[in-house]
Amino acid sequence: MDITGFIANMPKAELHLHIEGTLEPDMMISLAERNNVSLPYASVEDVHAAYNFTSLQDFLDLYYQGMEVLQTPFDFYDLTNAYLTRCFAQNVTHVEIFFDPQGHTSRGLAFESALDGITSALDEAERALGISSKLIMCFLRHLSEEDAFETLEAALPHKDRIFGVGLDSSEKDHPPPKFMRVFKAAREAGFIAVAHAGEEGSAANVADAVDLLEISRIDHGNAVLDDSALTDRLSAAQIPLTMCPLSNLRLRVVDDLAQHPVRLTLQAGLLATINSDDPAYFGGYISENFLAVQQALNLSLEEICQLGRNAYLGSFMDDDQKAIALANFDAFAAENAA
């Protein structure tokens, strides 16, 4: 099997995926019509034409606008189900997905509207498709600490369905210390913590997220390699990095995928993984991200296997689930890596 076929067929886990970022243009238009929401786009082609970002903020402006079409639990179910159907087609067996409740409650939706629709689709996918999952609620870092605390309070009755908390949105001007207290409260309530850091921010943001927010996983983490001492720390602790190549390219974190740091992170002993971030906006789901970065960096089959294996190692699956998933991955690699 050649490396393209290997990537297409290998078992995968995805650890960095914003469910709102899977809103494909055709679904955006369809939901706008269903819910009588006015959009500044007349067609699917117009939506595609708008996907011309020069920065993270340019993307976020369109991203939050697109959310407006999500109005009911059924909308969130349809959105999540469409993503999971794509996952099944790309041999994804486990997902750990983000959702942004503040992006919905700020529009007048009940906290449960998004949660009910998303979790019903996740539960159905586990039964019907064998895709296991964890759901992570993100705080929007451009909003206030007070707003984050209100969101945490809303989540507490639903701890059986929300596994962890994260931190996303604009990294610039919103460093980790802003959210120390709410992350402490979330951890004390029993939530696992992760955070976006080192995407448009510095290695210092990554260090602060680890030390001040006490996160278990770093989302993105491109800037880690700028600090050799931090790199050594994260390598020794095997704190995962959830890297997103096509996102980094579209948002100008890297100017060319040939400059992407994923190979260097592997060489440094970091637990790097490949993910799709907001695939409807960035041009590819997880297989496309693997293929793009493999071609740009000429990654070897051994490196692809390491990245694929790292995702299961870096997941929040319980020990028994993880052992089974790793055994299945290793069996696939042994049979097809020749």
Plain-language structure description:
The radius of gyration is 19 Å and the shape is globular. Helix 2 (25-35) packs across helix 3 (44-50), helix 5 runs parallel beside helix 7 (111-129) and helix 8 runs parallel beside helix 9 (180-188). It has helices at 3-9, 25-35, 44-50, 56-67, 73-89, 102-105, 111-129, 145-155, 180-188, 203-211, 228-237, 245-250, 262-267, 279-282, 286-297, 301-313, 319-336, and strands at 12-18, 92-99, 132-140, 164-168, 192-197, 217-220, 241-243, 272-274. An eight-stranded parallel β-sheet has the order 1-2-3-4-5-6-7-8. It is an alpha/beta fold and 338 residues long.
Characteristic key phrases:
338 residues; alpha/beta; 17 helices
The geometry reads as globular
Assess the beta-strand content as a share of residues.
5-15%
* Mean pLDDT metric: 95
Order of helices and strands: HEHHHHEHHEHEHEHEHEHHEHHHH
Count of extended strands = 8
Ranges where pLDDT stays below 50 over 5 or more residues in a row are none
Helix content: 40-55%
Radius of gyration: 19 Å
Strand ordering within the main sheet? 1-2-3-4-5-6-7-8
Largest sheet: 8 strands, parallel
Give the end-to-end Cα distance, rounded to a whole number of Å.
7 Å
What structural class do the secondary elements suggest? alpha/beta
Given the structure, what is the number of helices? 17
Task: Outline the fold blueprint.
Blueprint (H helix, E strand, L loop, with lengths): L2 H7 L2 E7 L6 H11 L8 H7 L5 H12 L5 H17 L2 E8 L2 H4 L5 H19 L2 E9 L4 H11 L8 E5 L11 H9 L3 E6 L5 H9 L5 E4 L7 H10 L3 E3 L1 H6 L11 H6 L4 E3 L4 H4 L3 H12 L3 H13 L5 H18 L2
Parallel strand pairs: 1-2, 2-3, 3-4, 4-5, 5-6, 6-7, 7-8
Helix pairs in contact: 2-3, 5-7, 8-9, 16-17
